[in-house]
Amino acid sequence: MFSLRVFCSFVFLSLHAVSGMYDPDEVLDLPGMSFKPSYRQWSGYLKASSGKFLHYWFVTSQRDPVKDPVVLWLNGGPGCSSLDGFLSENGPFHVRDNGATLYENEFSWNKIANVLYIESPAGVGYSYSDDQKYQTNDNEVADNNYLALQSFFAKFPNFTHNEFFIFGESYGGIYAPTLSLRVATGGQLKVNFKGFAVGNGISSFALNDQSLIYFGNYHGLFGEQLWKDLNDNCCENGVCNFYNNSKKSCADVVLHAFNIIYNSGLNVYALYLDCAGGVQSQRAMTHLFRNFRKHWETNQIVDSTPSVQGVPPCINSTAQLNWLNRGDVRKALHIPDVLPAWDICSDVVGNQYHTIYETMKDIYVKLLAVGLRALVYNGDTDMACNFLGDQWFVEQLGQKASTQYQPWIYDKQIAGFYQQFGNITFLTVKGAGHMVPQWAPGPSLQMLQRFLSNKPY
Amino acid sequence: MFSLRVFCSFVFLSLHAVSGMYDPDEVLDLPGMSFKPSYRQWSGYLKASSGKFLHYWFVTSQRDPVKDPVVLWLNGGPGCSSLDGFLSENGPFHVRDNGATLYENEFSWNKIANVLYIESPAGVGYSYSDDQKYQTNDNEVADNNYLALQSFFAKFPNFTHNEFFIFGESYGGIYAPTLSLRVATGGQLKVNFKGFAVGNGISSFALNDQSLIYFGNYHGLFGEQLWKDLNDNCCENGVCNFYNNSKKSCADVVLHAFNIIYNSGLNVYALYLDCAGGVQSQRAMTHLFRNFRKHWETNQIVDSTPSVQGVPPCINSTAQLNWLNRGDVRKALHIPDVLPAWDICSDVVGNQYHTIYETMKDIYVKLLAVGLRALVYNGDTDMACNFLGDQWFVEQLGQKASTQYQPWIYDKQIAGFYQQFGNITFLTVKGAGHMVPQWAPGPSLQMLQRFLSNKPY
């Protein structure tokens, strides 16, 4: 009895020790939640540039919110919502298939960190712009995310002393380092910034596309003739260029290869998982697959299945969609009534998005030079951003290897491989696809814990 | 009522229509079986060469035993039992984890075929030799399997008219074609032989080892330095030889690579599945992994964990082992009391086994020349016999491609890829490991059905 009372007092103190929280945004209860959370949470808006408001959801750590780090989580697309990260990947609770009730996620990242989810840029999810103009680009997104962060820490000033980390997934491979550079050098925002991480990120378009051809062939997707055609048409003296080869014969055969990967019915985000809805439901998610889209738009060879609004191919997000669009859920999350329905990805944002950076190399070099810690991790069965492209990217940063490439262990099993290069680590998560925290939750929480505490994986 | 009576009569007639069955071997009931099978089964012994007796288990088809084909199933090793195929892969029932009770396998191959399982060679499982000498080789095994087949069809003469197919898995990649050649050209045995199939088989030691290096690298197991070392030490003018390179520097680095695959704790039979018992329980199964063993025996670099009798690494066969070794089960299967306990694999057989053939190429060419149908299929996440080695093997047989390399569909999902070369097909089963019918039961039954009926996959 005594120990229980001590424990309860401790939880109470922990939950309320952080003063200066922004009360109007606090989420006190949620439809479909039958359990009592051991953390506090807020949902509301962060002001970015003029008229732009980014929706955030912030959950404190279940361990020690005062001392635990703050982790920012950004999903990619461009145009996809970080609430997918919350409700399907690493958030403290997920939505049951019925779309109505919630269940706790044993491997939530807020077990050990205060986690901030921002829907970015404006136009994504419940984020919006007063003028409803949603054309944007890499630098503008970084600027707006930086402004939103300032707005966040103004609402929650006590967290400026916690260690701070930025995570991006997929196209977040561009959001995270570009934002990190502003945080590291911007001057305005005073936080205890320690590092950034990128999960199945796009780090270099050239390396991503180049490696994907090897990935496809050595995972059995191509066969002898296509592999021969790729080599005959795209390689000279043993050097192959599958990315921006000026020969039409090469571009045609690369398009054929990409068509198998993106358009045949495979789950591009997790090769060995089923495609939700079956092979017929497949469509190219053209926002991200840039080289493929480039060919596609000029050549029009690909069967142009009508685009399903905002749904990435082979992914079933019906449960989240149904739950987030309930009136009572919107109210609990402080979403204005005038905003349209939430969607997992926005074609309006995606289709008008302008990519500025071909590679993140220079930005990584700058970030490492100021002493930041970095982690590039990849579920190794993803084809949207395959592990090999990111492995090559890290290897080519010019950092000296400080460990061998070696296995890491979770629960007595090889969870993947990693290699340390000074302050940056490349790490694979074996058998996981694009959404690592969703498909390898246990290993992914261990990875987070090791990265945040700067320990070997 | 009427239709039910007709149906029951039909089942009764089907089950008993096949006269001339060998009564003493019939299995009438089995410990742990709570359901009534819709097929007949026999277990007993087939006489091979002098003093050698091979244990068989034969189950009739659940569809139409009179008309359905007879399929022979052989597991590999060498030294492993085909009852693993029965009880874990494609048999009509499997053993529950409790090791005591049985449950029906929805995707049993006897849904559409009469299936014969033979434990081969003598010394494996419940097969034995009177002199207890278990040294043998590829040709002797083929001879004995051929004699055993004669013994089988003498016991079950009515099945000589059914179409007949031979399947081998793993080292069965040598058993199946060598036996097929004897059946096709032997003259003694008169059966309606139509073709053979090999699942994750060893078809060429050179191609298996050569391809494994590429498989390992492009599945993220090696890292940059090892890949560079492999290329620097084993390749000249863009041509690599990882198999029998005479340079010690190459052999050393290949050994290092094989060590990661076989000895680091990965599940060599299914890269993305856990290793039963965790990384510590790992050991090299040296019977099959010949090149690795060759290095291992001469260099002694590998940590020589004591061999666990008969258990392949990362595989848990406790349930089968417990069930098959019960006295009442042995009695029901007509196993003589004097025989020792059943084990999934025999080190006595495996360690003394002499491999004669480096490649099955000549034998395949002969078998295709006499008009037989062939299927080489591979679960594409296996590293013991990786898909790429078998793909290259089929491509290099000199048969003209008659289809493109293309996906095949099971239940609205891409189940893998295949390509037809006249009478021989190469086919992958996506996401499955070494034991395809165990890890992709639905696709595997469809594959069987298409192969037996000579239809496109």
Give a written overview of the molecule.
- Chains A, B: Keywords: Carboxypeptidase, Hydrolase, Protease, Signal.
- Chains A, B: Its EC number is 3.4.16.-.
- Chains A, B: Belongs to the peptidase S10 family.
- Chains A, B: One of its GO terms (biological process) is proteolysis.
- Chains A, B: Residues 1-20 form the signal peptide.
- The structure is a homodimer of 457-residue chains.
- Chain A is α/β, with parallel strands linked by helices and 457 residues long.
- Chain A folds into 2 domains: 41-203 and 355-453, 3-Layer(aba) Sandwich (Rossmann fold), CATH 3.40.50; 206-312, Rossmann fold, CATH 3.40.50.1820.
- The first copy, chain A, is built from 15 helices and 15 strands.
- Chain A has helices at residues 2-16, 82-90, 138-155, 172-185, 205-218, 224-234, 248-263, 290-299, 318-324, 327-332, 347-352, 361-369, 387-395, 436-439, 441-452, and strands at 41-47, 52-59, 70-74, 93-95, 102-104, 114-118, 128-129, 163-169, 192-199, 235-236, 239-240, 373-379, 406-410, 413-421, 424-429.
- In chain A, strands 1, 2, 3, 6, 7, 8, 9, 12, 13, 14 and 15 form an 11-stranded mixed beta sheet that branches. In chain A, strands 4-5 form a two-stranded antiparallel ribbon. A two-stranded antiparallel sheet of chain A has the order 10-11.
- In chain A, a hairpin with a 2-residue loop joins strand 10 (235-236) and strand 11.
- Chain A is globular, with a radius of gyration of 22 Å.
- The two termini of chain A are 39 Å apart.
- The relative contact order of chain A is 0.14.
- Residues 1-18 and 295-309 of chain A have low confidence and may be disordered.
- The A-B interface holds A 214-215, 217-226, 238, 264-266, 271-272, 274-275, 278-280, 380-381, 387-388, 391, 395, 401, 404-405, 407, 409, 411-414, 416-417, 419, 428, 430-431 and B 214-215, 217-226, 238, 260, 264-266, 271-272, 274-275, 278-280, 380-381, 387-388, 391, 395, 401, 404-405, 407, 409, 411-414, 416-417, 419, 428, 430-431.
